[in-house]
Specification:
The chain is α+β, with helices and mostly antiparallel strands. About 40% of the residues lie in helices and about 15% in strands. Strand 3 and strand 4 form a beta hairpin.
Length: about 300
């Protein structure tokens, strides 16, 4: 079988707009047609032709489409309406997944129910986007820790609003509450309740900043945050994200939980810092052996 002019590569396209639907390239109905030539004995050629038609029919009966670039503050609202999207499939063979980090909904399965589900997803995004407004609340950066992850769903369930926090490296201390105008009051109350629900201790790593980075590297490479949390159930341990380490003058390890539990964890961290005093050093290593050190010899 030969495909004249075909190289099996799908060329790019324009960037997707917010909430735009993106079918996989093989399912694009606007894709140019390419003639296929079957060469061989006539009976076998006809048999091959029938098989090709069957393959095409089976492929065209199923599709995968993605709704991408959903605005960050809309994602939790979309996630909360999962059951609505399942109902839109009307019992059809559909697999639905929502990746919060990528801000993307993927729908796969039989073509007709997939198209219905995608239409409902897009309609939901448009409806929510047009109906929500926002209010900003100044909160200390340490309290932002309590407003991410599972807290977003809890705040949405209790206050009918979504909260977004600025990136760790962003100097802003303002969080944004999104919701309908009539729900913003309860949303702000839910955010404040969550932000004040636990005790937070910021443990500054000893400086200067070059030393702080060395200590943080040790903490990260040894998995000390997990060890500390395991030794103190009920305490969550947060270390600065990689992107923030080069942009701040002070590096903190945040300990979150009940005050008594956190105080015990703080004492353990203090003991570790005392042992690490003068125990870290930066050593230049030729880049050619970096992968060797980071690979099987890393734990040594």
């Amino acid at each position: 079988m030969t495909v004249p002019g075909g190289d099996g590569v799908a060329n790019g396209g324009s960037p997707h707009a917010s909430g735009a639907t993106s079918p996989i390239p093989t399912d694009d109905d606007d894709e140019p047609m390419v003639p296929i030539t079957v060469t061989g004995p006539q009976p076998l050629a006809y048999e091959a032709q029938d098989l090709i038609k069957q393959i095409i029919a089976s492929k065209r009966a199923r599709t995968t489409q993605r709704v991408r670039d959903i605005p960050p503050h809309i994602v939790p609202f979309v996630k909360a309406r999962y059951s609505t999207f399942v109902e839109a499939a009307e019992g059809g063979d559909v697999q639905l997944s929502l990746k919060s980090a990528e801000r993307e909904v993927t729908v796969s399965g039989d073509r007709e129910p997939v198209l219905r589900v995608v239409e409902v997803v897009r309609g939901t995004i448009a409806a929510v986007s047009s109906s929500v407004t926002s209010v900003k609340i100044p909160l200390p950066k340490r309290q932002h820790r309590l407003l991410v992850g599972n807290a977003v769903g809890e705040i949405l369930a209790s206050g009918k609003c979504v909260v977004t926090v600025p990136p760790t490296e962003d100097a802003s201390d303002e969080v944004i509450v999104w919701g309908k105008a009539e729900d913003l009051g309860s949303g702000v109350a839910a955010v404040m309740t969550r932000a004040n629900s636990q005790y937070i201790h910021e443990f500054p790593l000893p400086g200067p900043i070059a030393l702080s980075r060395q200590l943080l590297t040790y903490i990260q490479c040894t998995g000390y945050a997990r060890t500390l949390a395991a030794a103190h159930p009920g305490v969550s341990v947060f270390i600065p994200e990689s992107v923030a380490r080069s942009k701040v003058s002070v590096l903190n390890v945040d300990l979150v939980g009940g005050k008594t539990l956190v105080d015990a964890a703080v004492r353990q961290v203090s003991e570790l810092m005392g042992k690490l005093n003068g125990a870290t050093k930066e050593v230049p290593v030729d880049w050619l052996v970096h992968k060797v050190i980071q690979g099987k010899h890393a734990k040594k």
